[in-house]
Specification:
433 residues; mainly alpha; two-stranded antiparallel sheet; 14 helices; 2 strands; elongated
């Protein structure tokens, strides 16, 4: 039922965009509407697992940033700063309209990254593109419209060409290898459900992808987790017992926290989409100008993408089993976690790594002790969450995975630390003159 509601939500976005407006859309309006649609598209495009979603958010953010930065004296291009990224086409001489540029760069980029979405999503993209293309052109000279449109499209093409060489452009079988040999050993990951496709782990080579701001997926290594042991006196056993006992003693608030950050693929905006949703809510709440919106979405997207590459590199280095596997083997064969266990190794926590990155990046952009509400999960019947800082939100996202029975504590603590290391590389990018 939730999937049906999500599909209807995409149609609702298209319907809203078909409603006449009183004024020509601004570039900020165009940005808002496209990101609103993207967050819905992520929910039901089959290949959009968290790593894949993070990659698209990064490239879409960079494409818009570059198109906007060339006309904003306060902004500086990311060319030569991001790995393998060369300068995009220069802004042409003559009058350029920012709303037309943004419409062109976002529509071309999003069309490309969501080429395989379903019929409802395709209709929504068509409706958005047709409406905004017409409305941003109202009252403008034809040569201004064409010059602006061509420039936005050229920047999108440049970024899309760059994206095809990163190792993550082609996703087969929704990211699950057709052939995969599990590693031997009691501590190693094994499948946690009977779905045939998921008898191999998701995207085992994602950690080898080209990064954006970090030198490589190995730039922020993760220290080892407690040594595997089935001895009740061992640290590993104690971590497993903590997960086991947490499920039995969950408070209503802890249950809400676990579900609020569950972010399951095909049922939500995914973990990176959740942080993008938070950023979008803040930018729209504060009526942020175009330059700030472009900067935030580019840096956050880059950080989330690098976080998943770094996390996946570590996950397949350690190849650690999930709590449900250990607990059923050693403690209680009937145990069930609160949330569905994702089909890939446990350590470190992806939620934690990407949330640590988002914390550092967004704090650098908005400031320490920046309060906000998160309404991301309201459509799913969960109340808004209120936070006094991005760090508080990141730490809640991390601990939510222990409440959900998905991760041991070490994966959360060390994942947050890995994410903060990755975030520092993103903060070091010079986006302002």
């Amino acid at each position: 039922m939730r999937l049906i509601r999500n599909l209807l939500a995409v149609g609702t976005v298209a319907l809203l965009l078909a409603t006449p407006v009183q004024a020509r859309p601004t570039a900020e309006d165009v940005t808002s509407l496209w990101y609103r649609l993207v967050l819905e598209l992520v929910r039901h495009t089959p290949t959009y697992t968290p790593p894949v979603a993070s990659r698209s958010f990064a490239y879409v953010g960079v494409a818009q940033f570059e198109a906007v930065a060339s006309g904003a004296p306060e902004l500086r291009s990311l060319a030569g700063q991001l790995n393998g990224f060369s300068a995009p086409p220069p802004r042409p001489d003559g009058v350029i309209d920012e709303a037309v540029v943004v419409q062109a760069v976002l529509s071309a980029s999003i069309r490309s990254f969501f080429f395989n979405t379903g019929p409802t999503g395709q209709r929504a993209m068509t409706a958005v593109e047709a409406k905004l293309t017409a409305e941003v052109a109202e009252g403008l000279a034809p040569d201004v419209v064409e010059r602006s449109r061509a420039y936005g499209a050229a920047v999108a093409t440049h970024v899309l060409t760059w994206s095809k060489t990163d190792g993550g452009a082609v996703i087969e079988n929704m990211g699950f290898p057709y052939e995969y040999t599990l590693n031997a050993g009691p501590e190693r990951w094994v499948p946690t459900n009977l779905v045939r496709q998921q008898q191999a782990p998701l995207l085992p080579n994602w950690g080898n992808n080209r990064t954006f701001a970090t030198p490589s997926g190995k730039a922020c290594p993760v220290p080892p987790h407690p040594a595997y042991s089935e001895d009740p006196a061992s640290d590993f056993y104690k971590e497993a017992m903590e997960v086991y006992q947490a499920k039995a003693a969950l408070t209503p608030e802890q249950t809400v926290i676990a579900r609020s950050w569950s972010d399951d693929p095909m049922l939500s905006t995914t973990p990176p989409g959740h942080w993008v949703s938070i950023a979008r809510q803040i930018l729209e709440r504060d009526a942020a100008p175009l330059a700030q919106q472009a900067e935030v979405m580019a840096k956050l997207g880059v950080g989330l993408a690098d976080a998943f590459i770094g996390c996946w590199d570590a996950k397949f280095q350690y190849d650690l089993l999930r709590p449900v596997t250990y607990i059923r083997r050693v403690i209680d064969p009937t145990w069930e976690p609160l949330l569905n266990t994702p089909p890939f190794p446990e350590f470190p926590s992806g939620h934690s790594t990407q949330s640590g990155t988002a914390d550092v990046v967004l704090t650098a952009l908005f400031g320490e002790d920046f309060a906000f509400d998160d309404n991301t999960m309201e459509p799913d019947g969960l109340p808004p969450r209120s936070f006094t800082s991005f760090r508080q939100a990141a730490e809640e996202a991390g601990i939510s995975r222990l409440y959900g029975g998905i991760h041991f504590r070490a994966a959360i603590a060390l994942g947050l630390a890995q994410g903060r290391c990755i975030g520092a590389y993103v903060v070091a990018l010079r986006t302002r003159n």
